[in-house]
Design goal:
Layout (H helix, E strand, L loop, with lengths): L2 H13 L5 E5 L2 H16 L3 E5 L35 E4 L4 H12 L4 E6 L4 H4 L7 H12 L2 E5 L11 H6 L5 E4 L11 E5 L1 H4 L2 E2 L9 E2 L8 H17 L1 H22 L5 E5 L2 E5 L11 H24 L9 E3 L6 H16 L3
Parallel strand pairs: 2-3, 2-4, 4-5, 5-6, 8-9
Antiparallel strand pairs: 1-7, 6-7, 10-11, 11-12
Length: 349
């Protein structure tokens, strides 16, 4: 134990009151693994439901329904079927589908948790209606499942209170990634209700009633100290607001370029999370299997080509469709980026 582990936990609780207790780990993937294990230990249920297309790290149980809704185990190469046999997905924003899963699961032991990216899958590639998370909260309460917010992307980015503060929804568990340390490596964690977090155990001497988690670099002093001072500084200078304004500026510029060249593309943002959809590959799904089979590879190839074209101009994007603005992105930086984007997008007209 180190004093900065406690200081960081207290600070996170101040920003996000739903995090009554916090456990520092080594990554967002570890945070998801721990949250699911705690939910199962607490509820004595096994099923976990996620949104189709959402990304929650690369643990065996979560490589399910990745990127494209309805794909289930399509990308689960090397993962035994049993590892994800208790994982389910529902179509983005379909509360009716979620209720159906919860009803069926109640007949076979119940649902331990529903895990969501609160802005929508893949950092809001399919944005949620504002009341979606509240309605998921109500369904979880109705069926005795825990609600897990994966705030690896949104934590301290949407605001210091994360997406839960923005939407005014209190999850049972919250997962963090390197946002917990301002980007410093070897960092992640999970926090939430004290009675759930108390289900964690580590070290030698457990008697089997609690969920085992641990890690050599979990809660290392450097990461905890980096997190404590980074979050204080972000609060002092209102970093989420400044980064969000940069995202607004970038999005307005991209929209103007799209309109100028009459391109069939879409640009939008959620604060400092900026989306530039050119191929729409992430909007395909298994509800239209023939279309998916016909269009997935060419759309994916186009996305890769767009990413390579941006990179030729010195623009690094995530998967050719997503950008995350930060404090470093001044007006001058954004305007220079837009000049380079226009070089690429003008060639698409």
């Amino acid at each position: 134990f180190h004093e900065y582990e406690l200081k960081l936990a207290q600070l996170v609780h101040r920003f996000m009151p739903a995090v009554e207790m916090f456990r520092m780990l080594g990554s967002g993937t570890e945070g998801v693994m721990a949250a699911i294990r705690a939910a199962r230990a607490f509820t004595k249920k096994k099923y976990v439901i996620k949104v189709g297309g959402a990304y929650h790290g690369w643990s065996d149980q979560m490589v399910y329904g990745l990127h494209v809704p309805g794909t289930r185990r399509l990308e689960a190469t090397g993962i035994p079927r049993g590892a994800s046999s208790a994982t389910e997905e529902f179509f983005p924003n379909s509360l009716k589908a979620l209720r159906h899963h919860l009803i069926v699961n109640r007949l076979r032991g119940g649902t331990a948790a529903v895990i969501v990216e609160p802005l929508g899958p893949e950092s809001g590639t399919r944005p949620v209606p504002f009341d979606f998370n509240q309605k998921v909260r109500e369904l979880c309460d109705e069926f005795g499942a825990l609600l897990i917010f994966d705030e690896v992307v949104t934590g301290f980015r949407v605001g210091m209170g994360g997406a839960q503060g923005f939407f005014g929804v209190k999850p049972d568990l919250t997962v963090f990634g390197k946002c917990i340390t301002g980007g410093y490596p070897m960092a992640g964690g999970v926090g939430g209700r004290a009675d759930v977090i108390m289900r964690f155990a580590a070290g030698i001497g457990g008697t089997g009633e609690r969920a085992y988690i641990g890690g050599t670099l979990s809660a290392n002093p450097l990461s905890c100290a980096a997190g404590y001072y980074s979050l204080l500084e972000m609060e002092r200078i209102q970093a989420p607001i400044i980064a969000g304004c940069a995202g607004d500026r970038l999005t307005r510029g991209l929209q103007a370029i799209i309109e100028k060249y009459e391109l069939p593309f879409v640009a939008y943002n959620q604060g400092s999370i900026v989306h530039l959809e050119t191929s729409g590959v992430m909007l395909l799904d298994f509800r239209h299997p023939l279309r998916l089979k016909r269009e997935l590879k060419p759309r994916k190839h186009m996305l890769e080509e767009m990413g390579a074209a941006y990179m030729s101009q010195g623009l690094i994007t995530l998967a050719g469709s997503r950008m995350y603005t930060s404090m470093a992105d001044t007006d001058e930086v954004i305007d220079e980026a837009l000049r380079k984007f226009e070089i690429v997008l003008a060639a698409c007209g």
